[in-house]
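Table S2 (text version). Query chain:
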Amino acid sequence: MSSLLNRLGYLQTRRDRTPNLDLARDLAAREDVDGIREIAKNMWNENKNIHWDCIHVMYEIGVIDPQLITPYAEDFIKLLKSKHNNMVWGAMTALAEIAKVNPDFIFKHLDEIKKAKEAGSVITIDNSISALAHTAAANEEYNKVIFPYLLKHLSTCRPKEVPQHAERTLPAVDESNKDQFIKTLKKRNDDLSGAAFTRLGRIIRLAEKIQPVH
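Corresponding structure-token output:
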């Protein structure tokens, strides 16, 4: 086992996230392309604990610098079809970061993203909304295709998911579509109470302040 892989949480017999986070920060800080390639390769390791730790390191690198994991975007798309739930949501978390720097790639794979979202766990769905919203924010063409899908989701998702998913949709909201967004959220207001109602109100106020880009 390489010295790099030996730093993974599983191989240190640790159950906490710290070793993987430390490794991700180290690789990102040094922009260690060879090290990142080794971690990416081991997302396909036969040992499920190693491949899970590796995908964890990869998406944590993506949080710091999405450009560093973009070369492995195709791998993340393939991993959306994994039968292991944590691999699917780990891949979607990475793709949500990649969407910030390479929306063209995400747009090309919209069908796979939507399919994984429809069948996915809570974390998979959360991150698919982020991936789609950042892609929709890239340009008018992408927005026209993706934004109606995001609005439909906001109008039909479970009440407790509305505030978080509305927040994740915000990057895609602009002057041209903010009225539809606000209208959709106001319709969901009756389903909410307490902290969720307050949080949604704050998101509506943020949307109301969106100005045209000059």
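Notes on Table S2: Residues 48-64 form the longest helix (17 residues). The CA atoms of residues 114 and 128 lie 8 Å apart.
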